[in-house]
Specification:
The chain is of the alpha+beta class. It folds into two domains: about 1-45; about 60-189, Nuclear Transport Factor 2, Chain: A (Roll), CATH 3.10.450. The protein contains three helices and ten strands, in the order ααββββαββββββ. The protein has helices spanning about 1-40, 60-65, 120-125, and strands at about 75-80, 85-90, 90-100, 105-110, 130-140, 150, 155, 160-170, 170-175, 185-189. An eight-stranded antiparallel sheet has the order 1-2-3-4-5-8-9-10. The protein has a two-stranded antiparallel ribbon with strand order 6-7. It is globular and about 45 Å long.
Length: about 190
Amino acid sequence: MKKFAILSLALLVVFTIGQFKAQASVNETKNVIKKEKTEEKQTERPKLKKLEGDVINQDSQTNFYMTIGNVPDIKWTRDVYYDIAAYNKDKQDLKAYFDINGAFVGTTTIKKATDLSSSLQKNIKKLYPDATLGQVTYFQANEGNTTDMTLYGVQFESKTEYFVELSQGESKFVVMCDNQGDISLFKQL
């Protein structure tokens, strides 16, 4: 009977040690996968080419009229990466962005928090319950152009997104939201 008890105890110890090693291996695998996903998100985008000079590209102007149409009172500016046309259409202030080749990248407009879908508003409140919603910038991408966009000094893949400024105590930050309801931290302000 003693032999059976000792044998049972030995098997229990071996089994327990095996489980600890297996659990450590699973945790290690999870950490590697998590690290790979984090590194994947941090992959740098190809650098945008800087514009030279201060003269608006004629192709930008031509593409504006082809894409947006004939709009009165267009105010053109040039920043580091884009020719930007500020205009008003349908009682809404917009900015159209054109890349180094004069190709249309997309438009931005300021929206109200109430313009966000109710599900998106709920998801933001769920993730940031104590945050106060500020300015909402809507970027509508030209799906035919793969040039990245830059907002808040951050380069990102050019796709249609909402950028919502939030404040929580002393902290101010911007979250990026897509039409599917995905929300991610974009930048600390």
